[in-house]
Amino acid sequence: MRPLPRSLNPVPDETLPSFLLRLAHRLSIAPLHIGERTGLFPRTGNVISPRHLLRLTPELTAHIAGICRLSVQEVHNLTLAPQAPGFPPLHPNYLKPGRPFEAVVNEGWVFTRFSRYCPECLGDIDDTATASCWSGTWRLPMTFACLRHHRFLDWQCPACGNPAFSTGIGTTGRWRPASLIPSPLANLHPALCRSRITGHGEAFRSPRPCGHHLDRANSPAIRPDPEVAALQRRLLDLACAPAPGPVLSAGRPASAAEHFNNLRAITLLICGTWPTAAELFPDIPQLNVIASHVEERLAAVSKRQQGGHRASTLRALDAPPPDAAASAALATLATRFLTTPETAECIDRLLAECHLHWPGRAKLLELEPHCSASFRAAAKPRLDPLRVRRSPGIPAIFPPPPTHDGKLDARTIPQRLPEDWLAPLATLDAPPQLLRQDAAIRLAQMARGGARADAAFYLGFSRAHVSNLAARVRQWQRKDDNAQRYEEALSRLADLIAATPNLTNYQRRRDLLSQWTIPPDAWEVIIDVVRQQQTPASHHKTLWNTARYLGASAVVWAWATQGERLHAPALRSTQGSPSKQVRDTAVYESLWLENPDRRRARHRPIHQLVHAALQEYRGQLITQLDA
Q1: DSSP secondary-structure letter at 40?
Q2: How far apart are CA 55 and CA 133, in angstroms?
Q3: Torsion angles phi and psi, residue 175, rounded to 5
Q4: Residue 296 or residue 602, greater confidence
Q5: What is the mean pLDDT of residues 148-152?
Q6: What are the distances in angstroms from CA 304 to CA 22, 198, 609, 624?
Q7: pTM score above 0.85
């Protein structure tokens, strides 16, 4: 595409959506049109993931630079990672390699769904170059005050009550799908609220945005104390300096990343053991604000536990408050823990309240290796007993042993149980698809021993799928005597499989097809078979695109391995794979190719023909695999 006729100079610390809003307002067009030209917004729909806040691919960076008449470095600086190099949660390998963007959203230590803001900065007409710019540092939880105007940041629209720069919260109290730019079809000034008004427009494709002036202060500004302002300056210097020097943390010098990890670990301990921290430092101001935040977090923990969401419970306890005053009070209290001469004693006092069933145990153990050496030394005596969960009668250093060693072979267990194995599970009042997958995991665990998650990964399930599946099964098992009946059914099923001769080695098939798609020459044969059964007039109406090819590969893989088609190699998101839109279309293609009768009558004949051709090819493939 040709470059835009006019562009703007980015402001230091400005975010990508802020730049696009200012540019769209200057050109008097909707932000969606600029997003489409820059390759950010999809051709269909008006919601795009805010993952571009963190980083852009080199190809997309170069494309945006050409369209917007910027340098590659200027576009790169519009993301958060280069704006705060010392803030660990902005980096892809924080805590563990290959951290997905969803983990950043769930942790809450980068505001991806909304932004804090300073009304005076947005309405500063004296400096037209920086007017109405949304700073990237406002997206960081440790940025709670504007040092330029000496005031706490706001985070909600005074008119609609929605978080600023968000799509809003619906009538049910749940966040609407996050977007890089809320209401991208509306040509509004960058300082106006773009959130959807609660209770209006829920059923419309283009609901009405709020449109309130966020650059106009509706109430007197709350001024931070000098101590809080000084803390804000130190935190910003550590996060945003290109090469920040060491800082005194937990009694010894530490790097900026280690200090922020110390702060996060202490914050987790404060919220998880409240009111112990208030008893240690009763002179900290705004303790009542911290108490309100902790009560809200604990209520979220209780709600998550009742729903069986164990992983989300840890995140809910650790999530920072969106309110700037509460965030400042919590940061002040956490900093006091790390700067007092009695740091080791205070950390020991907090850890004394933790136990094996403490909700924040797993997150604290995940954070501890990345904290400073002095923090790890102070926490080690109390953390060592928390590292392994002991079970009655089983030594802590040994995993659970296999219960059917010699009777079951884990290699013969598929991801989805065959139809002739389902008789023992038929009497259970549960969704069949749920038990077909969970029973396969339990059978692999009975054959191999170890943890349930290890058995699931052995079968090829993803971590997210395993967590969701476990939560749904736990919720079902809590009702009546479902847990006991399920155990008895699994025992009968194990005996049935053990008595079945000549079982298929599904693990060998999964290994042979771990990176498999239909070979191109075989795909051409399948196309020819289908065309021979079509009328010549219908040839040009049939698409043989990448999505159909990937969907067909996923279906054949699922048939050959008795697996779930969504876990097929053809549909995995890996480096060099097609775009998300193509993969999403391939998912639907695999659904219709696996079950052509679910397709609409107008499109059903072609899917039935391809289904029959794939069935024939499946037989040839299985013969080759088992030979």
Answers
A1: -
A2: 19
A3: -65, 140
A4: 296
A5: 93
A6: 40, 25, 46, 48
A7: no
Crossing angle of helices 373-383 and 343-351, rounded to 10°: 40
- By the 10 Å C-beta count (0-12 exposed, 13-18 middle, 19+ buried), 232 is classed as buried
CA–CA distances in Å: residue 53 to residues 88, 110, 602: 15, 10, 42
How confident is residue 592, by pLDDT bands cut at 50, 70 and 90?
confident
- Give, as one character, the DSSP assignment of residue 145: E
How far apart CA 284 and CA 280 sit, in angstroms, is 10
* Helix (H) or strand (E) run with residue 489 in it: helix 482-498
Nearest partner of 580 among 20, 41, 36, judged by Cα = 41
Q: Which of 349, 118, 145, 339 is nearest to 250 (CA)?
A: 339
Identify the pLDDT of residue 391: 45
The terminus-to-terminus CA distance of the chain in angstroms comes to: 53
Classify burial at 614, counting beta carbons within 10 Å of its beta carbon; exposed 0-12, middle 13-18, buried 19 or more: buried
Q: Which two tokens stand for residue 184?
A: 């991208």
Q: What is the pLDDT of residue 186?
A: 87
How would you class 575 by CB atoms within 10 Å of its CB: exposed for 0-12, middle for 13-18, buried for 19 or more? exposed
463 residue type, one letter = R
Report the largest interatomic distance among the alpha carbons of the chain, rounded to a whole angstrom.
Answer: 85
What are the structure tokens assigned to 351, written together? 């850890």
Which residues 6+ apart lie within 8 Å of 212 measured at CB? Answer: 157, 158, 159, 160, 192, 193
DSSP 175-195: BPPP-SSSSTTS---TTB--P
Sequence-distant contacts of 341-345: CB under 8 A, at least 24 apart: 341/251, 343/250, 343/251, 343/374, 343/378, 344/250, 344/251, 344/377, 344/378
Q: Which residue has the tokens 């005597």?
A: 481
CA distances from residue 609 to 565, 594, 604, 614 in whole angstroms, order as listed: 19, 12, 9, 9
Q: What is the pLDDT of residues 363-402, one digit of tens each?
A: 899 899 889 989 999 998 888 888 765 444 444 444 567 7
Contact predicate 557/568, CB 8 Å: yes
> Which carries the bigger pLDDT value, residue 458 or residue 451?
458
**What's the pLDDT band for 19 if we cut at 50, 70, 90?**
very high
Contacts of 476 (CB under 8 A, 6+ apart): 430, 434, 482
